[in-house]
């Protein structure tokens, strides 16, 4: 049971059943948090494979008014490749009950499913290790105490630089992948809204299907990044 804004093409629902359902939620003090935050925005998280290539906003998070005031950053996020639709995400902060820790950095292994990223990562590691080994070799050949101290510091600096760049690598790739994914998603949304006024011919449906498949491929390569405090001892 959905409002017309949450389906494409819109489907006529039984008005009596719809009113009963939504009034029940309203009387109990519950609301659709995402729709409350974005009352006029059109977003879809599921595209069917039927002959119409219909779309809808499936996932909902219904919360009370009291809980809604403690929520922020309502958004639609991409999910793992084994799911058939995206999800609704929200940050919930009960007042005076959240203790934020320092956290630890970790490498997101979902990046390794992308062959292009694996190739770039191998090239980066190979180059960094060559530079690091040259520094170590110079340290081993040092004779005086002054040179030992100076070259030891260069080895440490080289290692720290390598680790910092390695930590930035997933973030950079995520941003690149996210930008491409958003462009595809916006293009798909524009096209599916445009088709409201046109007949859904096989050729037009194929265009939607191709865009959906490309967007699905992007979801395979999506990663999550948490900008937490890092420590070189983790690698």
TrEMBL record:
InterPro entries named among the record's database cross-references: Endo/exonu/phosph_ase_sf
Name of this chain's protein: Endonuclease/exonuclease/phosphatase domain-containing protein
Native source organism of the sequence: Golovinomyces cichoracearum
